[in-house]
Amino acid sequence: MSVEFLWRIPVHGDGRRAHTAHSRGEWNQLQPGQTPKRVAPQFNDAKFAYYDYIEQVAKAADIVGFHGALIPAFPHTEEPWVLASALARQTKNLRLLIAIQPWFINPAYASQMAASLQRLSNGRVEWNVISGGGGSQQKSYGDFINHDQRYARTSEFLEFVKGYSHHAPFDYDGNFFRVEQGGLHYPMNQYPLPRLWLAGASEAALHVAGQHADIHLTWAEPVAQQKQVIEHAKAFFAQYYPDKKVRFGIRIDILARPTYEQAVQELKQMHESVDLQQQGFARGDSESVGAKRQKALSEGKQFDDLFISANFWAGMSNVRGGPNGILVGSYEQVAERLQAYIEIGVEHFILASNPHLEEAYRVGEEVLPLLKSVP
Fold it and tell me: What range(s) does the Luciferase-like domain occupy (predicted)?
């Protein structure tokens, strides 16, 4: 089994506190008169910009040997294609996992953009294809179609991209996309398609993953529950797509320190910095099955109650949005928990920790080398 570890690029500010009090970049929403100490530049600083910090994070991940980096996409963040293009020239080996939604871009143009970035990066482009969680966030993008239609659109988008990239002249006539005599030509058609990471726990999502995914990605749950998620997906793929090899990945945060007590104390300090009145990430109308499972992990619980299994704390969505899970403990304990995920079939990890720069070095130097060799 070949195991890969990716790092997360902080596209919405960074720091040691909750997202509403980030001190790296100008992303936190300050009250009038508030001027927190800055340790990284704002966008309009004369000599440096927030991108310069993002570049440092990507280089740190590259230096310590992470296989790649996720560049997320949200309505309120930097745009991942733009960042990926810039980071491709500042890194050497780091694979660039770009979060995209098929609603954002025509598949013909997406094919051209991917081919150009493959040329620029020497083949390091990957896609985290997101069908969208629905609700108010999806409508804020101008997207109003329902859950199952979004996944049907994703499937068409990927069929289109596969044909357009390497099979000119290419015709396609679907429910969402159409092209006549299109396709990339030499030298743009000489580069591989991005490796595809697809998420989703619904039946519609699993059908799309079974057809197209290289890696089926989920937000992490405690190991016993994660095993159930993987076994369910494996059974589904075996039934409907027996000839397709799909690997499994999880997205989870890490807070590792020399001792368990130190790690918990830092987590508590970060949790206490959360402003419950300014949770810009809070959403209760998502249609995502996975998001609903994450919400259930932390519903109505206090800090200590959120330790729901060994070294697994389920309250991170209040701190920085997104998935709830974070592994908390000593270097050895966190490595043991990661090993447990590997043993149930997880081969790809997207890790993160605030602040992302220092923690990329810490996790890469102190935690990952403790993992056992994997057969």
Answer: 42-348
